Amino acid sequence: MSTSTSQGVRLEAVSKTYGSETVVRDISLTIPQGEFFTLLGPSGSGKTTTLSMIAGFTLPDGGRIHIDGKDATRAPPRDRGLGMVFQNYAIFPHLDVFGNVAFPLNVRKVPKPEVAKRVAGALEMVKLTSFEKRFARELSGGQQQRVALARAIVGHPPVVLMDEPLGALDKNLRYHMQVEIKEISRRLGMTVIYVTHDQEEALTMSDRIAIMNRGSIAQIGPPREVYERPGSAFVARFLGEANLIAAKREGGALRGAGGAWFEVASDRPQAAGGQVFVRPEKVSILPEGGAPSANQIAGTVRHTAFLGNVVRYEVTLPDGQIVLCDATNASGTVLRQPGEAVRLGWQRADALLLEA
Amino acid sequence: MRNDRLTLSPSRRRFLMLGGAALAAPYVIAGPARAAGQVIVRTPGGAYDDIMRRHVYEPFTKETGITVMPVAATVSKLLAMFRANNVELDLIDTGDGPLVTLGRMGALAPIDYGSWKWSKPEDVGADYRHDTRVANFVYSTVLAYNKTRFPEGQHPRSWADFWDAGKFPGPRMLADMASGQPDLEIALLADGVPRDKIYPIDIDRAFKSLSRIRPQIRKFWDTGALSAQMLSDQEVVMGSIWNGRLQTLIDKGAPLGFDWNENMIQVQALSVFKGSPNQANAQKLIDFMMQPEVQAKYSMDLQYGPTNQKAFGHVPAEHLTRMPGGPNSKQIGFMRDVSWWESNRERVNRQWSRWILG
Amino acid sequence: MPLRLAAKWALIAPALALLLLLFITPIGWFIWESLTELGSLEEVWLETQAVLGSRAILGAILNTNGIALTVTVMVLVIGYPLSYALSRARGLAFSLVLLCIVIPYFTSVIVRTYAWMVILGRNGLINQILLGLGFVSEPVDLLYNRTGVIIGMTYVLLPYMVLTLYAAMKAVDQRLLQAAEGMGAKPMAVFAKVFLPLTLHGVTAGSLIVFILALGFFITPALMGGPGDIMMAMLIEREIELSHNWPVAALMTIVLLGITLALYALYGRVSDKAEGGFAR
């Protein structure tokens, strides 16, 4: 269970089929030691099954899994030396906090004094010192979460798996725990494989994110990259609000409704058309009377939502498409009212052409 | 038995009334009763009912139009019914012991011998005729043995032999207190008491005698069914058993034999429950059941003995040898004294408990 | 929270009333009526002394508790693995095991007991097998002694334990077992450190039910026991059926009821303590 020489986790063409349904299809991944890696996807995308195969609770039908450089494809969970935080925490109701956190050490026959020392350390790290004698039912959700975390890290495992660990917490607590988990994982140099369906959480915490869809990895990369450079409409939509504006290639240029034309940072020159992707916060309302240029479109405000720091406009284009524009609520901002005609624009660098 | 226990406080009566009503409920026939009416009889149930239905109840109904309803009830239920003053049973067909007790409590109507038209009271043995009860058959406790262990001629012939484990080795059985009464008479016979000197039973002597044979006793049986089971399963090589139960096994081919010597004759009897709804019908059924031909038929099927002495005349000779109360059994056996038992059962019960657990 | 408490009582009240009417009232009346028959308190005291001082009753109390305890242990030892298998079985296997456990309930105790007598007798199935295989040269006495009583009662009472334990085992969160395994516990450790503690309340409840039911047995020991295997219920039955002595029967009933209630109180304290440690 030493961290220094560890080699992370590697999946080679891993598949899992239940009956006629393939839930994980040919996944290959390399997660280097110390990385905070997130499997993100909607429910049913295969992310939990993938995690379960890494943990050893589910055996893959094909492919190989290497943990710390060793082939662990068929090893039982107990021999994989992983730390785990379960959905709903899985705190043992018959053991107090100390007993819960000491559990992974006790079943591995760690000497008593050593157990006491390590448990104290883990509890300190999750700020639960002096809670040793409490039982799960005497703890709040956040405290139970901390116990689960302490129990996962108490053995200093090189790799910790976390399955939607914050799903049951309210938003505020969730943010605090995100920060804490991130902080602890960095301090201990652990590899964390984190499963969530919450894209904000994934973006906040991860070094890299694998977005999963229908059993496959749709895209993999650092948060900013997958957010700003989605490879598909699915990824673009899953990671937040996205404008996807229909475009056709006419005479080498991408043309949209109402005479607009687009220039993008990443084109697909072979394609006859597609969808121009641009995030709402990259779209701005242009002042009156500028010269027409690329990446400008005219439309009518359909709805104005004042969100505090941001004002969100829904703008209808001449062909009926709707484009979202998030304008910063800077000083002196004048709110546009529904029915007003506006011109929207964005930078070439913020736009991509995606498959239709 | 202490008499004060039989006088009831009013509240006790009310309480028992509830119980009595509940007990009687199943016997009350819904809908209009037939013109000739009915008679409700407590019986031992099972195969007994089938035989009685065939030879007594159905011919009786044919003759009189009166329907006969056999029902099961334990003695304590009968007592509770009487105490609750809620008697729904007309006729009780049971061992004469409980009838003695019920009679002493004043629960029984006199047998109306004067009204008999089918049977003659004087044909019924004097031992079997009483004011409030009349015996309908007799049965015997006999010494049965396994023929494969003890071939004919080398078998135990007396209760003294039964007690002689050196000469006749093997596990045995005797009656348990729970069967109603343990075999104290047999214990005295084994100890050398002559047949006519058994009563009043010297309880201490009887238990001392029982103690001598106890190591050989595999089990004390509490029901006729269990005693038959133990003999046919060869769990025991000999034991006391009611002759009817035994005869059934022998007729099925079990390698069992018995000796009439020192057989203990016991009596099943009929009584009319005082205050029951169908008094006259109950008296009629008794009269009908006491006829020689009727008694001969059901006695043969039951493997027991008739109480109407004329009934023996209707029994084939080869069957007479197996009938208790007949010439084979009466001279060499004895009648169990039911009055002694009704007066002493509680005392014996206490002593039995101490002895069996000691 | 008085409102929630009131609601709780409102829910329990009908069942409580029914119990009171059907169970407590008759027993109360029986005891009251029987003892008032004795006439005076002095008489009651004298009878009580006689009953409690009787060697027969003390012997029966010892027998009753000894048999009930042995049967409880046997039922637990057999029932725990059986319940575990049942909690794990699915589909046909589950139905079959459950059927085997429950079907005997459709026949009377007497029929089942006679069936055992056929199997356990000196010339019964088991002895024939043992003799046939040469394990023994003489038939083994499995019937009409304490062994017979234990076997018979264990069989009759097994379903109570199995169904209680089954419920407790089904309630165990499977994710906890998986979690333990993931944390490095070997199967034995998963069982000893997680599964067993989580089903312990089922063990206590099942044992208590079995023990209390065993205290009141009388058909099985009467049929399958030896001369000395007398239990309390058998004595009570004889007092009522043979001696028609209600007062003594009532006093014996009080003794038996007292033992049962004392045990139940003990269970209440133990389980309260255990409850303190559970999340549910």
TrEMBL record, chain A:
Reactions performed catalytically: ATP + H2O + polyamine-[polyamine-binding protein]Side 1 = ADP + phosphate + polyamineSide 2 + [polyamine-binding protein]Side 1
GO biological process, one term: putrescine transport
A UniProt-annotated Pfam family: TOBE_2
Translocase in keyword set: yes
UniProtKB keywords: ATP-binding, Cell membrane, Membrane, Nucleotide-binding, Translocase, Transport
Top EC category: translocase
GO cellular component: ATP-binding cassette (ABC) transporter complex
Positions of the ABC transporter domain: 9-239
Molecular function GO labels: ABC-type polyamine transporter activity; ATP binding; ATP hydrolysis activity
Database matches in PROSITE patterns: ABC_TRANSPORTER_1, ABC_TRANSPORTER_2
EC numbers, comma separated: 7.6.2.11
Keyword Translocase: yes
InterPro entries reported in the protein's UniProt record: AAA+_ATPase, ABC_SmlMolc_Importer, ABC_transporter-like_ATP-bd, ABC_transporter-like_CS, Mo/tungstate-bd_C_term_dom, P-loop_NTPase, PotA-like, Transp-assoc_OB_typ2
NCBIfam families per record: potA (TIGR01187)
Protein task: Part of the ABC transporter complex PotABCD involved in spermidine/putrescine import. Responsible for energy coupling to the transport system.
Protein family according to the UniProt entry: Belongs to the ABC transporter superfamily. Spermidine/putrescine importer (TC 3.A.1.11.1) family.
Assembly: The complex is composed of two ATP-binding proteins (PotA), two transmembrane proteins (PotB and PotC) and a solute-binding protein (PotD).
Protein name, UniProt field: Spermidine/putrescine import ATP-binding protein PotA
Name of the encoding gene: potA
Automatic annotation (TrEMBL), chain B:
Compartment annotation: Periplasm
Recorded GO CC terms: outer membrane-bounded periplasmic space
CDD domains in the cross-refs: PBP2_polyamine_RpCGA009 (cd13589)
Gene Ontology terms for molecular function: thiamine binding; thiamine pyrophosphate binding
InterPro entries listed in its UniProt record: SBP, TAT_signal
PROSITE patterns: TAT
GO biological process, one term: thiamine transport
Name the record gives this protein: ABC transporter substrate-binding protein
Gene source species: Teichococcus oryzae
Lineage, uppermost ranks: Bacteria, Pseudomonadati, Pseudomonadota, Alphaproteobacteria, Acetobacterales
UniProtKB/TrEMBL annotation, chain C:
UniProt keyword annotations, A-Z: Cell membrane, Membrane, Transmembrane, Transmembrane helix, Transport
Record's bilayer topology term: Multi-pass membrane protein
GO CC, alphabetical: plasma membrane
Predominant location: membrane
Pfam families linked to this entry: BPD_transp_1 (PF00528)
InterPro entries listed in its UniProt record: MetI-like, MetI-like_sf
Keyword DNA-binding: no
Stretches assigned to the ABC transmembrane type-1 domain: 61-267
GO biological process: transmembrane transport
Cellular compartment(s): Cell membrane
Transmembrane parts of this sequence: 9-32, 52-79, 91-108, 114-136, 148-169, 203-225, 246-267
Record flagged with keyword Transmembrane helix: yes
Family: Belongs to the binding-protein-dependent transport system permease family. CysTW subfamily.
Protein name (Swiss-Prot/TrEMBL): ABC transporter permease
Natural source organism: Teichococcus oryzae
Taxonomic lineage: Bacteria, Pseudomonadati, Pseudomonadota, Alphaproteobacteria, Acetobacterales
